[in-house]
Automatic annotation (TrEMBL):
Keywords: Amino-acid transport, Cell membrane, Membrane, Transmembrane, Transmembrane helix, Transport. InterPro entries: AA_ABC_transptr_permease_3TM, ArtM/GltK/GlnP/TcyL/YhdX-like, MetI-like, MetI-like_sf. This is Polar amino acid transport system permease protein. GO terms for cellular component: ATP-binding cassette (ABC) transporter complex. It is found in: Cell inner membrane; Cell membrane. PANTHER family: L-CYSTINE TRANSPORT SYSTEM PERMEASE PROTEIN TCYL, MEMBRANE COMPONENT OF AMINO ACID ABC TRANSPORTER. GO terms for biological process: amino acid transport. Belongs to the binding-protein-dependent transport system permease family. HisMQ subfamily. The keyword Secreted does not apply. It comes from Rhizobium lentis. It is a multi-pass membrane protein. CDD domains: TM_PBP2. Gene3D superfamilies: MetI-like.
Length: 219
């Protein structure tokens, strides 16, 4: 590692830290909002009426089939066109949350449908209401099944956050490009940015494994 790079890294340390903080903030907000919305999407796909299921199915298919960059640009420019001054940060988080919700919805749907129907019938037989059956029998099992796929989706949100640079959100990639425009050390700083993204995703993955171990049923 050259002395010149270390010198430039020291000069740019606060810019990089601000970029990391912005990336983590974007990712956490998108994951949180997308997960909450995704749970309702999944419930609608499993328990909704025919019309609701068709509408939600169309929503998930359209969103999952649309590139994230298109969603980001649409969220930013369409909101401005209709008079909603969301700003780049809010528009970007909204786009990522919508994208996340379509994936989480499918994860929740698959987890709920994987639970044997006999468990629901047994719960009815002992007098449990649907709400009691769902909260005490179905949802705890579904959450355990959802976790690995949800962790993958969360990691995808971190990577997708780089796309917000195109609308001017000062996340890690945009900050890295600003640094490179001043010192022209593109290879070194892009490698650094890649390593920082890896560290964030590595943390998410290991947090998911920790929660999975804590919630696993005793064998």
């Amino acid at each position: 590692m050259s002395h010149a790079f270390l010198e430039q890294l020291w000069i740019a340390r606060y810019v990089i830290m601000n970029g990391i903080a912005m990336t983590v903030s974007i990712s956490l907000l998108a994951i949180l909002a997308g997960s909450v919305l995704g749970v309702f999407v999944g419930l609608a796909l499993v328990y909704g009426g025919m019309i609701l299921r068709l509408l939600v199915r169309a929503y998930t298919d359209i969103i999952r089939g649309t590139p994230v960059l298109v969603l980001v640009l649409a969220s930013y420019y369409v909101s401005a066109a209709v008079g909603l001054d969301l700003g780049p940060f809010s528009a970007g988080v909204l786009a990522l949350a919508i994208f996340c919700s379509s994936h989480v919805g499918e994860i929740v749907r698959g987890a709920l449908q994987a639970i044997p129907k006999g468990q629901t019938e047994a719960a009815k037989a002992i007098g449990l209401t649907f709400t009691q059956t769902f909260t005490s029998v179905l949802w705890p099992q579904a959450m355990r099944q959802c976790l690995p796929a949800w962790v993958n989706t969360a990691a995808e949100m971190v990577k997708a956050s780089t796309l917000l640079s195109v609308i001017g959100v000062a996340e890690l990639l945009l900050r890295t490009q600003e640094i490179i425009s001043r010192n022209f050390m593109s290879l070194q700083f892009y490698f650094l940015a890649g390593g920082l993204y890896f560290i964030v995703n590595y943390g998410i993955e290991h947090f998911g494994k920790y929660v999975e171990r804590k919630t696993a049923l005793p064998s």
